[in-house]
User: What shape does this take?
Amino acid sequence: MSVLELKQLTKKFGDFIAVDNISLKISEGEIFGFLGANGAGKSTTINMIASLLRSTKGEIELLGKNIAKNSRFAKTNIGIVPQDLAIYEDMTAYENVSFFAGLYGLRGELLRDRSEEALQFVGLEDKHKSYPKNFSGGMKRRLNIACAIAHRPKLIIMDEPTVGIDPQSRNYILNSVRKLNDMGCTIIYTSHYMEEVEEICTRIAIVDHGKVIADGTKQQLMSMIKDTKDVWIEVKSTEAIDQRALSAIQGVTALSLEEQTVKITSKVEVNNLNLIIQLLIKQGVEIRSIDEQAPNLESVFLTLTGRNLRD
Ligand SMILES: Nc1ncnc2c1ncn2[C@@H]1O[C@H](COP(=O)(O)OP(=O)(O)OP(=O)(O)O)[C@@H](O)[C@H]1O
Ligand SMILES: [Mg+2]
Assistant: This one.
């Protein structure tokens, strides 16, 4: 059975459509990734699943039950780790976790035990009585996670849980995600970091302008571009490059310019490297090196959306 099913889910803010008719099924045991650029509609979708935002149209079913009609059931079975930290600086780490566990319905001894367990799970057991205002960014993110898992929800939603933290905390969080998954939780994971999503997600949805434009395992998504190759050209500067002319070269399917790198995805059967180089030289670009690269999820994203993930 699906743990979560979205049926034609839509959210409008005035005339603006932030989430556009998304239908999706997430099965038990998945670590499901939402990948999309800024403003794609990831948080809006997630906030509707967590009942923090009302949908304009469509339905959300958790374990076969409509969440709007079964709000208590939804509350006890979903845990959300929000993108913006939701912790109280003037409450201790333990008080924060037990406050949220209480909101999710836990009481008495169970509330105490589970709150301790959640702090232990994120490695903050010795910070029990400390105040988050003295915590590092990574510790705050970990506390944010503890607050969402103490009630042992079936579905845990993490919205950019690793933004702005040190590599050690990031590893800790990624390991926690795997551990929660091993314990039977289904997870929805949102991130800008392609490598993270590639590493831990069992299935990935690419979201753009409020729509899911592709979803599948990494292998399935990669097979969408199996007839293309990536060439990276290092240059002194990409400032003077006419993107339109470069994109118009036969066989080019995606193009992205970084400060000193031109990343081009193009069809394998078209030999267009000479044309590309000639055009760059004509535009006065100083070329430093040329490398063929193995395509990755970023190439899929670029090919489908026409833009960089981190624009
Ligand atoms: N309360 C709101 N009122 C009006 N517009 C909103 C509101 N919340 C979000 N939006 C708009 O909806 C779109 C989707 O926003 P959302 O926060 O879901 O994107 P996101 O994919 O989570 O982006 P990010 O990666 O930056 O977190 C954006 O264009 C945003 O400006
Ligand atoms: Mg967001």
Q: What stands out?
A: The chain has two domains: 2-217, 226-294. The longest strand covers residues 2-13.
